[in-house]
Amino acid sequence: MTTGHRITVEKSDRPVRVAHAGQVLAESDRPLVLRETGCPDRYYIPAEDVRLDLLTPSGTRTYCPFKGTASYWSLPDAADLVWAYPEPKPDVAEIKDHLCFYEVEVL
Description:
By secondary structure, the chain is mainly β.
């Protein structure tokens, strides 16, 4: 990693819930929290705890030199609301098979 830039991934000791327009999209008592220099903490939720049936894959892809290439999912009224790193870089391998949302309620 670049000097001064740091990423840590650890198990959160608090459950999280994600809702949009009153509908629960994800709820988990086993999220990971990713802390990255210059970024807000992000909660990565196991795919099994996400309502994937409500999400539509997006064509959007972004690249992070520290995490890898992200894929996105959308709702009809919220484009690219969710992302994941299908093949994350080795330093953040734990986030594989986990999804991240912009807005997460920490319970």
